[in-house]
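This follows on from our talk about sequence and fold. Can you supply me with one protein entry, sequence and fold together? Could you add the entry underneath, on a fresh line?
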Amino acid sequence: MGNTDEFRVVVACHNASGVPDFFAARVRATRAQYDDGEHYDAARGAALDAGHEGPCICFDERDGPGFLFRGMDWAGSPVVAAGEGVAVG
């Protein structure tokens, strides 16, 4: 499958109460999975599994605004694998 890297992804969505919210996930993906956007699918899936609701807009640390990434709790965020839709840590 190839070597994986970990990408930080923020999902703009709504929480279970319907209030706009941000959800943070760390996604493990190969370069090919990253290029295909599978890291976004994995982060979106993790947000929905955690009870958040769409619509969802995803940003990774390479394309999103810096303030989103500075304010997130990365140590407490789930780690998911691209292409599998399951938490790995």
User: Anything to note?
Assistant: The longest strand covers residues 5-14. The first helix runs from residue 31 to 35. The chain has a mean pLDDT of 91.
